[in-house]
Amino acid sequence: MKVKILRQLSPDSSPYWEIFEYDGPLDNSVAGVLDYINYHDDISDVEGNATTRIGWECSCLQGMCGACAMVVNGKPVLACETFVRDFHGKDIEIRPLRKFPVVHDLMVDRSSIHENLKAANICIGEYRPSEDTDFEHQYTAAKCLKCGLCLEVCPNYVNGRSFYGAAFANDCYLVASRNQSKSRMIGEIYGRAFGRDCSKSLSCMDVCPVKIPTLSSIARLNRLK
Amino acid sequence: MRNVLIIGSGISGMACAVRCAEHGIHVTLVSPFSSERSQSVMAAGGINAVLPELENGDSVACHIEDTLKGGACLGGRRAVTGLCEHGEEILRYLESIGTVFSVDKEGHPLRRAFGGQSHKRTYYCGASTGKQIVSALVMEARRYEAQGVIRRKLRSSFYSALIRDGVCYGAMLYDEAGGNIEAVYADALVVATGGQNALFGKTTGSTLCDGYVAGKLFMQGAELKNLEFIQYHPTALETAQKRILISEAGRGEGGRLFIDRNGERFYFMEDKYGPNGNLMTRDVISREIDALGGSAFLDISFLGKKLIDGRLPEIRDICSKYAGIDVNREPIPVQPSVHFFMGGLAVHLDHETNIRNLFAVGECASMYHGANRLGGNSLLAAVYSGRVAADTLAERNRTDSERPDFSRELESESAKLVRSSETESRFPVMYIRDMLAETMQKQLGIVRCKENLMQGLHDIDYYLSIAEHLNFDSSVMPYYNYSLTGILTLARATVKCALFRKESRGAHYRSDHPERDEKYRAATIISYDDGNFCLRLDEGGAYES
Lengths: 225, 545
What we know:
The complex is a heterodimer.
Chain A lengths: L1 E6 L8 E6 L8 H10 L29 E4 L2 E4 L13 E4 L6 E3 L2 E2 L2 H9 L15 H7 L7 H5 L12 H13 L4 H13 L7 H5 L6 H9 L3
Parallel strand pairs in A: 1-5
Antiparallel strand pairs in A: 1-2, 3-4, 3-5, 6-7
Helix pairs in contact in A: 5-6, 5-8
Chain B lengths: L2 E5 L3 H12 L3 E5 L16 E2 L11 H11 L6 H9 L1 H10 L14 E2 L9 E2 L5 H18 L3 E4 L2 E9 L2 E9 L4 E6 L2 E4 L20 H8 L4 E2 L4 E9 L4 E3 L3 H4 L3 E6 L2 E3 L1 H6 L8 H10 L4 E4 L5 H7 L1 H11 L8 E10 L2 E3 L11 E3 L4 E2 L10 H19 L11 H15 L7 H15 L3 E2 L1 H20 L8 H5 L1 H17 L8 E2 L13 E6 L2 E6 L8
Helix pairs in contact in B: 1-5, 1-12, 2-3, 6-17, 10-11, 14-15, 15-17
């Protein structure tokens, strides 16, 4: 099986494709494939040329931290919960998320997610829940990994400068539902940085690794206006 | 104090940062990646506390006794009392900052039973308690970031501490973007860098927790404590890349452990310890599984789909995704895995190390858990320790003496890094880390003996001799190169501690010394003196009393 990876050695260098042969276990995840290529032996490309180890980010390796978000065969996914067996012998193509600046190979700088939330001052501050509290929805919203998959797939999100995307909307929902005194302030910011420009493709919900019901968050936030 | 440097942005680091900010102390919060990537998000089961209105026969005194007993009498009573007495305050605090706890119809937080505890006192957020606490603390930290009181510094890693004459003045950090080392001065340095997973390779924890900071600080004069006490969690699911924790919540909700014996289920824990056998402490269950061949099954299928979907969805999903197991129909194959490190940097009750103005909090500090940690106490200790350190810093005046000049050290270390970077090696540093993990898994397992430990020491000495002459492996991040010696040194110290304790207690079981020996009823302290490892027992309770 061949694994084609879009590589970029540093933020300023040009990207290029490199192809590797993978002959490891078929029950591996894509994260396992990257580890296998990197450390199974001295690393070389499919033609036998020595090359450098592939840069990628990981921490939990079980879908709980969002570090290994990348695009595999055209789909934004977490590498640790995407399995080789599901490609049925087809080659694998991996590239970094496109909506964020590349740091090294498959590692990208996702700090804009946090910076936007900080700039908009999205924080609970004090727990003053609204009466129609939906704990299950809040629990799922608070599981947001800030992995960036929802932004990668979003047709409206470009670079996070004006439209902040689903990760922002779900944190807005969480704050509004956990502290009702912030409802008005959240409603205004949400409208400006999300509600006004969201075209409701809802592709964000298809790729979310923790299945956040963003549509429900949107519905709740729209009622704040 | 006016400004503090905190290394690590998981729960303990953030709890400390937020508390410092509440006191008006400016914080620089350093981590290579964001808090969402920290190991804290993986803490599953819950957090212990005794809430008066829900007591049901429980009391803070019971929590204290359970913690001391679970820790095989090595935890300090004063330390544990402080921890348990603050359980309610911490739970209320976490609620107040928006943590989404699981609640009943009246909105009261729900509790579940956890191993080694006399009462149900583990409050939880589904099976992702750590993640929910991280999300709430991230928001709270963000509030102070927006005010400029907390400043996050990402893509930065600890290089070494700035220490002169037993006083810490900050740290040298490696900046990945710039590829250089910088000195960051502060009134105090707090390390919150988690456990030492990299010593063992495949564990239930994060690949980011490697123990380098503890190892480096040890080489710089900080004392370490109780390194031999390593918790093997009895129920992990083996996968190609890691061992995935099957939360104790599974047993807390009624799950049963068994092995297959001649085609029939043998419920070994219940057979030996009675109806509550599945909720014995983790060290006991891990040893039983080890003695029965190293693997077992956990059955939760009989609990019913409704309970599993409602309270154990993460276990359901992990098993389905990584092993193709439907927990509603099949038992889960489990085996013990390295999970938590009771040992770490030796700290006093205020979480200061033996070096003035150097503090350690969370799992990288050794405190409260003695020889074995109870489930639900790590999240409590993570938040509590961060707050204790912050309160200490708030009360302490700045050192009036003039800050020493570290420019020569900075220059020298920078030159060393540049020189190393200019050499090339085809022998990857990661291979040595893999070899170390193999050694530690084999020689420092659930059951140890002198022969194995001596072999482990021999192997580590060999790796250390290679590491000293290893050229720079430019194909990995520079951090992996410069951290290797510190990690190996910590591994060596761990094996030395295990050799030193010639008894069996808690998570440390020696087949050549199978009994508990009251002579060893004190913490192991190890210090580093120019390459020599010096061991002693903390019989006077100088650190934890």
